[in-house]
Write a structure and sequence with these properties.
ligase; Luciferase, domain 3; alpha/beta; Rossmann fold; seven-stranded antiparallel beta sheet; nine-stranded mixed beta sheet; about 30% strand; about 525 residues; nucleotide-binding; binds adenosine monophosphate; single chain; ATP binding; 4 domains; ligase activity; AMP-bd_C
Length: about 525
């Protein structure tokens, strides 16, 4: 059954789709309202299948808008209301969108674009209350289901097109990651904003399984007391977040089994999951499965996964990011400088050839298969550099060059950082994630980020920002000296950061990842 038919089925029951703050929404309400709104969109834009921007945060109406877009044949572009007006404007202008559902309080003014606020959306829903859109309009198969905007290296957002097939492939695989049995009803935690593709994991796993999505918002994330009292009322079974978010929760001793007695599975994705973090979670929550997933938005949320048991968390450091899903393939490559290689051993992106490396060797990670996006929306130039296609046995295979570095050992992928986090200091190549991993090996260090410090665009030195897992009765500079001394046993001298900064917490971005940009600013 497809997601639309499944939801129609759930709408005939009493199942609760959503809990957010002190209100809830049933599947019945989602279907009724999205049918009405989709009917309006079809009436107005029957011949124009442009994407539709939906701006808001965690409101129930966000989900109604998403579904009404796809039921009427339009991809939706989720935009979080915390984004700056310039960023929202850029996204809208590059989307060809003629309609915005603005659920937020932000006042948006854009020429020639119809912006509907909450009250107007509700009025439309009421005036189309009995209408049911024809199934032929539904987004399906190779149609674009949603477009999520990620930050490009230029700072300009790139809209990643995700097809219904990509989404289906992700969901079918993700449901095999724990002992899911059809008909089981779960409560999923939603931490990520809908503009970040991690949220696709909790949102669509909920929708496919008829489960409840329990959302937390920005305001709660900045107020632990409120967050914990809200979590206490949640009955969450499946936790979906970035590791940084879990680390933030772990700083409070009340984050344990008593707070979340029904927790069964924790799914982590988006950044490095450290051994420290896993071991703490394993101590606090005795009977849970912790799963590390890896993937970029361009390959639909995640393409590798592995359950991290106590044996792995205590014996393998850094942790692997997992086995590839069965309808995708991983390649580790390096730029090809010779012309002698056989086609079979190479992949090409925009005229540049990359040689496939043997197992165990470190290089750039390339993902191919059913989860790979067809490219960036309205951005062929950048798409060409990182997406490519090959026809194999009459079937089109898509490839995405991740700009992540890694290696494969015993079929397991290990992540080594972003390619652009490789820097040259005094002519020597350094991988920042390598240094961060060594810092995390020091017994009193909880987590670490290593950043290059530049002056007038020239690299001056490296700085490490670390959090500690215990109180050391020493001044910060003395702790810094101890860390440097310990690093001498783990790294070459030129890799030891000149500056060590100790912090209580690493700051998070709105998506829940470590905020490197803010830390870099602080170092200036
Ligand atoms: P995004 O497209 O915003 O979801 O970010 C994707 C990037 O996050 C990947 O290309 C990786 O650099 C990083 N990432 C995702 N999952 C993991 C993981 N499990 N461990 C380390 N880095 C990860």
């Amino acid at each position: 059954m497809n997601v639309y038919d499944l939801m129609d089925k759930y709408s005939k029951t009493n199942l609760i789709l959503r809990k957010y703050r002190n209100s809830s929404m049933k599947y019945e309400e989602l279907i009724r309202k999205s049918d009405a709104l989709a009917s309006y969109i079809i009436k107005r834009f029957d011949n124009n299948k442009m994407p539709i921007v939906v701006c808001g945060h965690k409101e129930h109406l966000m989900l109604v808008c998403f579904l009404s877009c796809t039921k009427s044949g339009h991809a939706y572009i989720p935009v979080d209301s915390s984004m700056s007006k310039e960023r929202i404007k850029y996204i809208v202008e590059n989307s060809n969108s003629k309609l915005i559902f603005n659920i937020s309080d932000n006042k948006l003014h854009l020429d020639n674009i119809d912006i509907k606020n909450c009250a107007e959306i509700e009025t439309i829903i009421n005036s189309h209350a009995t209408m049911i859109p024809d199934k032929i309009y539904r987004v399906q198969d190779e149609d674009i289901h949603y477009i999520i905007c990620t930050s490009g290296s230029t700072g300009k957002p790139k809209g990643v097109k995700t097809t219904s097939n990509c989404l289906k492939s992700f969901v079918n695989w993700a449901l095999t990651l724990w002992d899911y049995s059809e008909g089981t009803h779960y409560v999923f935690m939603n931490q990520a904003p809908f503009s970040f593709d991690l949220s696709v994991m909790d949102l669509y796993l909920s929708l496919y399984t008829g489960s409840t999505l329990f959302s937390i918002d920005n305001q709660m994330i900045s107020n632990m007391k409120e967050l914990f009292s809200y979590l206490k009322s949640s009955d969450i079974n499946i936790w979906v977040s970035t590791p940084s978010f879990a680390e933030m929760c772990l700083t409070d001793i009340n984050f344990n089994n008593n707070l979340l007695p029904r927790l069964k599975v924790m799914l982590f994705c988006g950044e490095v999951l450290t051994n420290n973090c896993v071991q703490k979670l394993q101590n606090r929550f005795k009977y849970i499965s912790i799963i590390n997933l890896y993937g970029p938005t361009e390959a639909t949320v995640a393409v590798t996964a592995i359950k991290i048991d106590t044996e792995l968390s205590s014996n393998v450091n850094p942790l692997p990011v997992g086995y590839i899903k069965n309808d995708c393939k991983l390649f580790i490559v390096e730029k090809n400088n010779s012309v002698l290689n056989n086609d079979e051993d190479c992949l090409e992106f925009n005229g540049v050839s990359y040689r496939i490396l043997p197992e165990g060797e470190k290089g750039e990670i390339i993902i191919s298969g059913k989860s790979v996006s067809p490219g960036y929306f309205n951005n062929n130039e950048i798409s060409k550099n990182v997406f490519s296609k090959r026809i194999i046995n009459g079937i089109e295979n898509r490839y995405y060059k991740t700009e992540d570095e890694g290696y494969i050992k015993d079929n397991l992928l290990y992540y080594c950082g972003r390619i652009d986090s490789q820097i040259k200091l005094d002519g020597l190549r350094i991988e920042l994630e390598n240094i961060a991993n060594s810092l995390r090996e020091i017994e009193f260090i909880e987590n670490a980020v290593v950043l290059p410090v530049k002056k007038e665009n020239k690299l001056q030195y490296l700085a490490a920002v670390v959090t500690l897992n215990k109180v050391l009765l020493k001044k910060d500079f003395e702790v810094g000296l101890v860390i440097k001394e310990k690093l001498k046993n783990l790294l070459s001298n030129y890799m030891i950061p000149r500056k060590i900064i100790i912090k209580e917490h690493l700051p998070m971005t709105i998506n829940g990842k470590i905020n490197r940009r803010l830390l870099t600013e602080e170092l200036k």
